[in-house]
């Protein structure tokens, strides 16, 4: 990359020194220097904050981050003349040498790549890669291989990586491992003082408890956070969802429905500056999927179908790696109420894209629905044939093309 003269000029025009902008963005001065030199790119969730401080739009910021033509040409010329390979920041040899804010930045970049793989390419499981990445960081933290003045920043970055690993292991149905990673993530978040990541981990733990059939624990975690914290609307939304599911899980369906309404009301309050970067996936579609899921678990299949249909047929623009899980739940509900034609239509749509599903939770839900339909043997022949094709697709070699 070449120097970003535009970024430095805009910073100066706004009256910021490198130290001043670093303080405003809660980063190290060396991070600002590296952005302006073009050595690293600001992470996606940091860019809105930079744009706000520099009083520019995101598009204008992207232009500022583009190296100037003269400096880019000069750098290319220097490289050609020296014939030396370009040194990559994220190479293994570099990572083992990093000790300060650059190490925290490298951890965050690794985390973002994993998140992108999980959400953009749904057919790739990131559980193993995320777990191994965190274990490497965990060893270095235990050995004290970092600069103590950057300890909290590194712990915060490590907590986020552990959270991603915990989520991925949960989605892969590796539940004991997910618990361990969530616990370690929570410890690191508390040590670092990163309340935003701590909240994300707490909602993961509540969700995990609900999935394992522990609704009282899901309810207790969500209510403890709601009662003890002043939450932004989007964060309140996700904890209201967990609270509603917990209430319905303990048989308080009417209370759960009311809390789902409160979740929708909170979301309607819109985004705020205080919303954490991770809350991008908290949408109306997320509420619909969980509302339908809670009704399904309560045995209220007919009531759950409209919410699950909304989640399946009108997805949000926020791409999440588990986006087909509502389809698996909807198929079960349709089978339960003998909506054979709707079930056949959904099965025909899911079958060709099964190879794109890495979520073990989703795949296992589909397998369980097929197993139960085989036991009941009440479905008409055309649907049994469609389900048999889905079963073949589920059992197919995922590496065959």
UniProtKB/TrEMBL annotation:
Coiled-coil annotated spans: none
InterPro entries: Cro/C1-type_HTH, Lambda_DNA-bd_dom_sf
Ranges for domain HTH cro/C1-type: 7-61
Pfam families xref list: HTH_3 (PF01381)
Matching SMART domains: HTH_XRE
Alphabetical list of Gene3D superfamilies matching this protein: lambda repressor-like DNA-binding domains
Protein name: Helix-turn-helix transcriptional regulator
The organism of origin for this protein: Streptomyces yaizuensis
